[in-house]
# Entry
Amino acid sequence: MSFLLAIAARNLFRNAARTAITSAAVFFGVALSILGWGFVGGLDENVLRAARTTYAGDVLLRPDGYPTDGLTYALADAAPVPPDLVSALDGIGKWTARTAFSARVVSGPDAQRITVWAYDGVRDPEVFPRDGWKVEGRWPQPGAGEVALGYRLGRLLEIEEGEEVVLQTRTRDGAINANSFRVVGLIRSDNSALDSLGAWLEYADATPLALLGDARSHVAVRVEGDHDAAAKLVAGKGFHASTLEQECDDLLALNRIRRKSLSIVVGMIMLIAAVGIANTVIMAAFERVREVGTLLALGMRRRDIRVLFMLEGGIMGLSAAILGACAGGSAVAWWSKNGIDFSGPLESMGGSMAMSTVIYTQFNWSPVAAAITFGTAIAVLASLWPANWAARIVPADAVKAD
Amino acid sequence: MTTALLSLLLAARLAFAITVDEVLLQIDKNLTYEARDSSITMTVTKGSRVKSYKMRSYGRGQDEMAMEYLEPARDKGTKMLKKVDELWMYLPAIEKVQKLSGHLLRDDLMGSDMSYEDLMESSRWQKAYQGTIVAEEMMEGRKAWKIEMKARDTSVSYPTRIIWVDQASFIPVRQELYALQGMLLKTWLMQDIRKIEGREFPMKMVVEDQVQKGSRTEITFDRVSFQVALPEEVFSTRWLER
Amino acid sequence: MICKLVGVTKSYPMGDLLVQALRNVTVGVGAGEFTVFAGPSGSGKSTALNLLGCLDRPSSGEVLLDDKNVASLSDDALGAVRARRIGFIFQSFNLIPVLTASENVDLALRLAGVEGPRAERVESALKAVGLQDYLHRRPSQLSGGQQQRVAIARALVKSPAIVIADEPTANLDSTNGEAILDLMREMNQKNGVTFLFSTHDPMVMSRARRVVRLKDGEVVADEAGAGA
# Structure
């Protein structure tokens, strides 16, 4: 077996270019699948992180009847947090309430429709620790007429810290109100939607602007342990509760579709690779009829001839798969530490995805191992028919073949 | 002190030979006509960006208005129909009639400084506001009453409106629209008042956003005619799709 | 007798026809012989060689090797017989291009199932053909004559009962061809290796000790050669 392996390995170098081209398909298939899985895994993690650390916490409550599409923020549907809900919330963990409302931010000649997030500067950081957020400047002081903007919104409007902007909005009843605020901070959170279309306003300033009263649109809770159980404890008290996972389900479902289409693409590449390998092995068999005849004449068994050719396909598949796994795996491993900054492409997409612009890929050994196994298995299977053909060569004629 | 204030108020009241209600009623009357057919040019300026639209507009009474865009090419065929409190749009790109309601009415008309709601509101002043004539002064070269109007309830879009009404034509030549906490949001001018077919009519309107610097909309009536026979179907949703 | 065809007929299908390559041939090769099967192409000499070399099976008749009939053995069993008992030398040398000279020789030993250290046997086999300095050359780095010497070493290294050489000099110039033939002759004489050739080259026939002439699938003459 070991000398068959040696012969097979050497045979691969006889037509190095052909071997390389054939291996390339396996290489790319394996590399792409590992990259893709690492990336989509990172997207999953990113989606959950963005939701958990910027608006949902572990359990998110909205007033009954409040839209859950994450696009419309109807102030009229916001509602006070009833006392029985407050005590239930106190029982399950740290919680904070916010009120989102749409507004127009105007800076000189520029204006932009945004969503203002009224928040409680004491409770908010207890639920959203703001780890890894970048704050240019600082967070607003309550009641000081200060506002913080998403950093991309700030960049879009060319606003520097210290400049004044006007926030114009409708009160809960419908009257238009507007006021000047000093921009004291530009916030880069884990949530691209907040960064590009969000402004942060303390309740002390937001309440007179939009006449919020006690109306709250979001209550985020940070809990230890089971989210579903926690959600049940606070449900049915005028607010409906959803867990982080339910909240992210749409985006996670999108990622499931991404995984499926990735599998199809990888499958197609692997199919091409399989055809390539079958072709290469059958070409090798055609070219080496005399050699196979000689090996048979010298007494090699037919099954060893078959093994020889399957080894050639297999080695090609295995080495390409290992190289592909190294390339894909190391890229995924590197990006899992350093992250890929997607702020450019996301900006051009409008950037309204509730996710961070920096995506950390997810490195796991199992997809690496699976991709190597799959790539090699495909190669071996593709060599099966050509190897069988070679094993059926008739030595008496073959030894004299050209 | 109280007596002095009272007598001052009384004096102020007596100083004007007309009441606010009478003025507002006259404005309403002015805006009511059997039929109106006009060609309009709308110029929207945002800083250095200028966009021009041409449209044809039909009106009947106070509550019915139909409008069709003629230029530019990309908006040609867009139609709008207002009936009392309802507004429909027809967008040729999607070949569909859409009813605008709720917050959509707060959107700007073609990116201009007027919302759909602004266009629909003028007929409700008397109902929505409590007005006081506060002065008589020259405005836009005309002798005008200055009327301060406070919203009767908190759902009115502009909580405060100050208008200057031309005493000769009963046309509000200048309006200032204020936010709840007193910030000036918009000014709205009516200019070039001419007598058209026996009726005083402002041939030009200028709306300026006072918050967003350099944002301004000018509406010019290129042609107005009141003595026209408008077919009934112009004010139906069928007309939109035609 | 080392090997023998007894009443062997071999026919091939060729299109719709059945071509008879050998018709009822009986011929054998004894130990220590240096025998040539001669005849024009199509005479059946290659077929006879293939049958005696266990590369093929007869349509009818017996093929005896070491007095045992091998005509009906399975492919693998025939392969095992070839590996142990028969050395082959081919017209086109048929070395394995990815293996060095010594590896080519070693391959034969390995396939013959030789246990224990083989390196010494490989080396002395190559030394015997004068290639002790070329052990690690690949076939592409050797001349035709040298390649055929490696092939001879490969055939002989396992001490086969018989070496079957099908036109071994056809692809060589006359100088190299003669040298190869001299080498085989020397091994025949010194070590008693049995050789069976096929050829239509008079020079080869002139070295043979026995010449069997075939024509149209039949043995037409069996005579002592000039080399006797």
